[in-house]
Each structure stands twice: as C-alpha cells, then as structure tokens.
Amino acid sequence: MIVGLDAGTTVIKAVAFDDDGVPVARAAERARLDRAGPGRYEQDADEVFAAASAVLERLPGPFEAIGVTGQGDGVWLSDGSGRPVRPAVSWLDARAGDILARWESDGILEALFRRTGSLLFPGAAAPVLAALAEQEPHVLEAAATAGYCKDMVVQRLTGLRATDPSDASVPFLDPRTGDYADDLLDLCGLREYRRLLAPIRRPPMAPRSDGTLVVAAPYDLPASAWGGGVTEVGDGLLILGTTLACQVLTDAVETTGEPCGLTLATWEDGRWLRAMPAMVGAAALDWVLALVGAGVADLPGLLAASPAGASGVSALPFFAEAGERAPFVEPAARARLDGLHVGAGKADVVRAVAEGIAYAARHCLSAAGLTGELVVCGGGAASRPWLQIFADVLGRPLRALPGEEVGARGAALAAGRAVGRPALPAPAGVVVEPGPDSGRYADGYERYLRAVSHARDWWREPKA
C-alpha cells in the first residue's frame, strides 16, 4: 500500500490507499497549538513528530512508500538531526506584524511580489526569521535548518535534510529558475541566514530504517490540489478548513496588478498554483456558533432559520489575530457585524458570518483567476447547507469531495509517482448547483467588496 501522511495544524492523519486509490485504513491524532502570547502561536515539534509516528504505526503494513505533506509557512527551527532548537512558529503567528509594516512602507513587499508573484504575510518564513533575528538571534545561531513541518517529519524519519519546490516557493524561490535567489534574501536583510535553507529536491525522498521509501510531497495546499484532481489550467480548489485555502492552476507567474496571494511551484514544469490562503474560514464560524451558544450540529437548523441575506445582517469575517493575508494583506484586519437590530436573531448572525466567508472565497477565487471547474473539500464541505451558500454566492457548480483526506491523497500520489505507480483518477465527489438565491448574492457580493474597501482604510488609520 501507499500511505499519505498529512501533518496538519490541529490534526495529524495517515491514510493507506490500495492499488486503485481507495482509502483502506486511517489513523489520526490531535495536535496542540499553543498561544504563547498575544498574536503568538507555536507548536512543539517533538509532539508533532510523535503524533506522526503514532498514526503511521497504527496502520497495517507493509507500505511500499509514504508520502508526507503538512502545514506550510511559519518556521520550524531544528538542529543537524532535525530536532527542535525552539518551539515551531506557526503560520498563524503575528509577531512579525511590525516588521511587515516596515517592509510595506519601504517598498520591500511590493519588490518581492514583482519578483515572485507572492505577497508576504506575518506568518511567512521571511518576516518570522527577521523577527527571530531581532528578538532571539541565539536560536538562529544554534539552528541548522529553518524549515517546514513536513520536512521536519521527513528528516526525523530518514535523516534527509531537504525541501520540495512548493514549500521553498515563499519567500526565497525564483519561480522562473526554480532555485533560491540571493537578491530576495538581500531584500529581507537575511543573506547571513542562507545556510538555514534546506536544499531543494525534485522530489525529496529517502528510505527510513526499515527500507520504506519516504517522499516529501508538496505541502498541504498544492498536495490537496493534486489529490482533488486539479489538473487543467483555470481549474481551482477551495479548502473549507480552519481557514480558507483558494487555489487556481496557472501556466504563468503573475506579478502585475495589486500585490496579493502566493505563487506556488508545482512538480510540473510551467505550472504554478495561484493561491489565496485566506485566514478566514471555519474557525470564524465556530467562534460565532460558540458565541450564540450553539455547536456545529446546530448549523443546518440555524442556516435554515434565516433567509438569504440574513435579514439584513452582514459580516466581515476577519476574526484571526494575525488579520488577513489573501486576497490582500492587512495585519490589522478585524471582523465586523453590520445591520443588527432587535428583530435579528442568533440564526441571522450565524448566517451572516457563513455568507461573509463565502463572499471572501469568491473574492479570493476571482483574484486567483478561476475560469474552470471548482473542487471543494475540507471539514466545512460536510455541511450541505453551507455548501449551497457557497454555490449560490460563487454562482457556479461545486464538485464537493467527501471526507478530509484530500491532502493525504495528494501526498500518496506524490509517493506513488516516486515509485512508478500510474496516476489515479480524481475522486468523483458530489456536484452542488447554484440555486435561485444566486442573483441576490451577486448584489450582496458587490456590497461586500465596498465594505472591505472602506474597512481597509479604517484598519490602516492610527488608533489612539
């Protein structure tokens, strides 16, 4: 069997697939995310690796190969053996917000975007490294690698110190040459730390102690696109997870227009993923459900109890402490509810946030250049009423994939390619068509865009 291991932010799962690509065994462990202070989010790399090892051990072997994917961005500092020299800084972290603001005012962010097609955000590796260089230079001196989650797991399993083109994409990869560019390190003032960048391999792979081949697959965003069957230019993937991840396959590196989003290298020459990994997502909906004394099981009833348009209540759903990173970067972005009145109920508040998240997805996918089929996956895709809102807001059919194994499937496909397995067909999924509320949501989307534009001016004003 081929195994896909997905080291996510809050759940680490392993899935074994048979020769036909059918999942035949699964194991999962929760992962702990620590809030180390205001806007500071970290993880214990030893705990993450222990959980990854545990889920692999719980699957029946033998395995032909193991593909490893996982959360991207952030900084996982390790020594020469892959063991942590400090807790990993998560992609959710906001400690580099002030550095990012300086880089924006100095024109560094735009210069980086014009070279790479990627706009940095507080949890990206470059600003996190710059923050650590200012605040904890001793840990950078003690480290051998400033890497990523999946690469840490692979190194601990096999001893291989390497990364793949997708994780290397942001922020130091020249997308045209496929290698690190020293001028990008210079722009960030980080040339002295180039030694911390792991070599790029296509693909990175090595055997573990029992001889099983371990492959560092693309990280979770491109792995999910691969696992979801996004193969044609213009096709897109929407992951309804803790955050939204919106991606569109493209054959060009776009560096014009307003800087936004990420450009991620794939394993195919001349193909990139234009990614808009928004911070808004199911976590925002979970927070609002808890606020009104409800849970996920109550969501279908609450959505049914409020009409399209949420009785005039609307939301900007930017609840993340680190603000927003796609399709714009605003570290000070904050959520807002408008149109509240005594006739509004908790169902209207919940529906307004659910609609606001769908508007954010349309904003991201429009910026990414979606023209073809849209695949939807992730935990949020299990809610058919919420999927209907997405189909109505987007005004297009969705191919919804069951379960939360798309990233693990992409990792398994990467491992299968490494051992010469033939490509497998994409899972069929269920098609959700837009309904009669699409016209109303088209008007609502225009109002949403105007509200975001106004809010961005407000977020940037100095606060007393």
Automatic annotation (TrEMBL):
Residues 1-200 form the Carbohydrate kinase FGGY N-terminal domain. Keywords: Kinase, Transferase. Residues 272-418 form the Carbohydrate kinase FGGY C-terminal domain. It comes from Paractinoplanes globisporus. Belongs to the FGGY kinase family. This is FGGY family carbohydrate kinase. The lineage of its organism: Bacteria, Bacillati, Actinomycetota, Actinomycetes, Micromonosporales. InterPro entries: ATPase_NBD, Carb_kinase_FGGY, FGGY_C, FGGY_Carb_Kinase, FGGY_N. GO terms for molecular function: kinase activity.
